Amino acid sequence: MKILFVASEAFPLVKTGGLGDVVYSLPHALAARGADIRLLLPGYRALLRQLGEVRILGWLDVRGAEGMVSARVLETRHPGFTFPLWVVDCPPLFDRPGNPYVNASGQDWPDNAERFAVFARVAAQLGLDALGLGWQADVAHAHDWQTGLVAAFLADAPIRPKSVFTIHNLAYGGYFSHSDFVRLQLPSHWWSPEGVEFHGGFSMLKAGIVYADAVTTVSPTYAREICTPEYGYGLDGLLLSRQYKLTGILNGIDTSIWNPATDAHLPAHYSASRINPGKRRNKQALLARFLGSVDDEALRAPLCGLVGRLVEQKGIDWILAALPGLLAETDARFVLLGSGQAIFEQKLLRLARQHPDRVFVEIGYDEALAHLIEAGSDIFLMPSRFEPCGLNQMYSLAYGTPPVVYKTGGLADTVVDTNEATLADATANGFVFDTPTVDAFAEAVRRALAAYRQPAVWRRVQQTGMARVFDWNESAGHYLSLYSM
Ligand code: ADP
User: What is the number of the ligand 1 atom nearest to the C-alpha of 410?
Assistant: First the structure.
């Protein structure tokens, strides 16, 4: 089966969040099961610089905002990928510094509508083998709003690959104005509430939902949640009406990268049968990074870690509100890595200045430190208000760092609260709160801290988490059956 994967980021070339991880791991899992994959990415400056030898497959002229735009399609083999990468090289749109979606001051690139409309047009053309490469895709699988138009462009073709669209986060809708729609000369029959129109403008995410043959999202619970007004961002009615083609398939984690027994970023390795000595050395290294010298007291005290985008979705405001109380009542330490909204960054840094021995904050994006936090912390905090799937809680389970999570989306599908019943049937692997409040979050952290003080209970919770395999192979099987339906 030939599958054209179309996405706006892929680890390790360009990654801003979980999407990048999935776009790396899923096609590899599919390739391992025999699928013939091409992964199409935009030629961002930072991405092009990481490519070795490239072959020009051809040029495609497609409509942009001001007339035609010429895109060069490159093919390259990258040591990180077992299949060929295709890259849309279009310097006016992608050859610029910084983030794929926002400029240095965090503002969306003003021409995002054109950037991703052009990318989608090229993707659809390649899906139809417009360059005559003799590689006709059976499936075009696109991801998130940046590629939502791929299915829409394909829908108009008489003979075409099956289109699959995956929603990794419904909160990002790719909303643009009517004048963008006109300037980009998008087909006028798309402009209706049954098409891409959304409250006077249009949504590229909606295009994916409307026009794809199959829509998936990244956990079964999130697939149900997005059909409700609470989680639907105004698209719940549409999603409810398309439930017949909507499936929730849980992401996996890439255990060649996220495995405490082999992780290249860790000073010490460990596994479920012998957790403590290795975990302790990682904790020491993690604390030393912030404290210089680490005494026994600091090593003994529970360390709560967080890695993630510092945005409201991730419950950072709950953390900020709960921390002063938890610092006063308990001996817990906190280590937090992330970047995002300036207000959260500033507040976290202020808290770290107020408690230099107990609150450690690193603002930025640091892959190595993320691994060390997963391994060196005792408890992982992930109180997301909503979470399509979430990878960090799965990493933390694999690293023997039980997570504290709100019962939503993929968190609800992967974390089992610790109580008498779940300890008895050996399913307890973390701490779950089911009311979206600061108090409920703080209470769950207190329960986790209490369990940490009971070594036998703690070891059982850790081992249950480490034993659960979030296997990409299984998810890949679900996608393959969907592709063949
Ligand atoms: P989301 O996709 O909503 O950001 P996920 O939990 O699904 O959340 O995935 C986040 C991914 O990004 C994980 O691989 C996580 O380790 C990584 N990540 C997020 N923020 C940072 C950061 N500041 N430094 C390093 N890695 C980060």
Answer: 7
Ligand 1 is surrounded, with C-beta below 6 A, by 17-19, 21, 307-309, 337-339, 365-367, 370, 390-392
Cβ atoms of residues 81 and 39 within 8 Å: yes
Residues 252, 254, 255, 258, CA torsion sign: negative
Q: How far is the CA of 306 from the centre of ligand 1 (A)?
A: 10
**Residue among 217, 386, 392 whose CB has most ligand 1 atoms within 8 A, to mutate:** 392
Q: How far apart are CA 303 and CA 353, in angstroms?
A: 18
Tell me whether residue 270 is in a domain: no
Q: How does pLDDT run across 332-359, given as a tens digit for each residue? A: 999 999 999 999 999 999 999 999 999 9
CATH number at residue 158: 3.40.50.2000
For 9-27, the pLDDT digits (tens) are 999 999 998 899 999 999 9
pTM beyond 0.90: yes
Distance 392 CA to ligand 1 centre (A): 7
Before 324, cis peptide (omega within 30)? no
The ligand 1 atom nearest the CA atom of 314:
3
Range of the domain at 166: 2-252+473-484
Task: Tell me, yes or no, whether 233 lies in a domain.
Answer: yes
